[in-house]
Amino acid sequence: MPQDSAPTLLRDGSPAAPAEPRRPAHGAAFDWLDEARDERRRAGLVRTLRPRPADHPLLDLAGNDYLGLARHPEVTHGAAAAAQRWGAGATGSRLVTGSTELHARLESELAAFCGFEAALVLSSGYTANLAAVTALTAAGTLVVSDAGNHASLIDGCRLSRARTQVVPHADPEAVRAALNGHDGRALAVTDSVFSVDGDAAPLPALAEVCRTRGAALLVDDAHGLGVLGEGGRGALWAAGLAGDGDVVTTVTLSKSLGSQGGAVLGPARVIEHLVNTARSFIFDTGLAPAAAGGALAALRLLGREPERAARAGQVARKLHDRLTAAGLAAVRPDAAVVSVRAPSPEAAVGWAADCRAAGLVVGCFRPPSVPDGISRLRLTARADLTDDQIDTAVGTILATAPTD
Ligand SMILES: Cc1ncc(COP(=O)(O)O)c(C=O)c1O
Fold it and tell me: Which residues lie within the region annotated Disordered (predicted)?
């Protein structure tokens, strides 16, 4: 018993016998985890958390803060002011107590900015994708899903009771063939910009295929909002599909808008349906006011400074052009993600570690996060990177590149 704790007394005032110290029971139920861990080690696929200090001197090409807004004073002030006005948490589901006037304002400004009739804000882009896929499908619906889609769309398909047909990457004719074989409701789902390679989906062709087959199109614009379209209005705007009655899009507030949260945008009747049926909306606490306030401030700032969107794309293309000119294999970026091939998972991990040791943080994508088993360094361009920082990043990546 600790020296400073008072003894527990029995009813007659006498001290109770000290409790036996709790011994950890030996459990074998999780022994299989050791085998799984060893397997990960053998395959070079161990993941570790690396807590980031508030101020570190490293150059960051791994985060998704494409416009450099996460620490912009207007955005952090928007977040702080919202927390002070509305509280640290939303206090409940949006349908109970968690819907504030701030959420409503964010929804109407986001919808107007992106050119859609209505929007619904959720706690993350992940839950937004679960909401959109599950609420817009039912048993008997065919979902046609691009092989390169983000895990959150894939999980939405898994949670839905629909039949999912995975089609080859960025292939409208494969979508057409899948839809041709189906009678009844159908939904085609795709990322706008694929998170692994940074390439863009052929949205106009996909929309045309869906239109001819009477199917709906759901586009995850996590990597397009803030980078593509006039002033960063997104990939649907760029493709002339914003506001189309058969098109729904999801976005995250955690990348270009530098905050946290997600949203579904589309026709008002789709949003009304989601409010009534989407489980990841209904059974989830509303987005924290600070995140809503930060995202709203970022959205307004982007409206005033549209050049940030174009700059993010320019930085990405500059990184790509310099790295490929030096002989590396990189995919030409359609937005702000630049993907550089690595010879193996181990080489990718070592390369990223060497970059870090030299002061540069880059992403490292390995199986199972990559659908084709090819490991990559993943670089994210930021609108606020200076030319000197781009030079430093390119120099570091080339100097640490694996030799075979
Ligand atoms: C394409 C895509 N969709 C959805 C998400 C999920 O967004 P969030 O991080 O807001 O949950 C991500 C985030 O990594 C993403 O890259």
Answer: 1-27
Rounded CA separation 220/264 (Å) = 9
CATH code reported for the domain at 55-69+306-400: 3.90.1150.10
- Ligand 1 pocket mutation, candidates 252, 260, 334, criterion most atoms within 8 A of CB: 252
- Residues of the chain with confidence (pLDDT) below 70: 1-8, 18-19, 21, 23-25, 404
What are φ and ψ of residue 363, in 5° steps?
A: -80, 160
Closest CA to ligand 1's atom 10:
125
What's the 161 CA to ligand 1 centre distance in angstroms? 22
How far apart CA 176 and CA 180 sit, in angstroms, is 6
| 222 touches 191 (CB < 8 A) | yes
pLDDT, tens digit, 9 for 90 and up, residues 211-269: 999 999 999 999 999 999 999 999 999 999 999 999 999 999 999 999 999 999 999 99
Mean pLDDT rounded to a whole number for the chain: 94
Return d(Cα 129, Cα 53) in angstroms, integer.
31
To which H or E segment does residue 79 belong? Answer: helix 73-86
Say how many Å lie between the first and final Cα of the chain, rounded.
61
Burial class from Cβ neighbours inside 10 Å (0-12, 13-18, 19+) for residue 116 reads buried
Task: Indicate the pTM of the whole model.
Answer: 0.92
Atom of ligand 1 nearest to the CA of 152: 4
Structural fold of domain 73-304? Aspartate Aminotransferase; domain 2 (3.40.640)
Rounded distance, CA 13 to CA 9, Å?
5
Residue 175, phi then psi, degrees to nearest 5: -65, -45
Distance 336 CA to ligand 1 centre (A): 14
Using CA atoms of 99, 101, 107, 112 in order, give the dihedral in degrees to the nearest 10: 160
The reported pLDDT for the residue numbered 218 is: 99
Kindly give, in sequence order, each residue whose CB lies less than 8 Å from that of residue 90, ignoring residues fewer than 6 positions away. Answer: 97, 98, 99, 100, 103, 285, 286, 287, 288, 289
Q: Alpha-carbon distance 113 to 131, whole Å?
A: 22
Give Cβ neighbours of residue 280 (< 8 Å, ≥ 6 apart).
Answer: 122, 127, 128, 130, 131, 134
Q: Is the peptide bond before 7 cis (omega within 30 degrees of 0)?
A: no
Q: How far is the CA of 399 from the centre of ligand 1 (A)?
A: 31
* Domains of the chain, residue spans: 55-69+306-400, 73-304
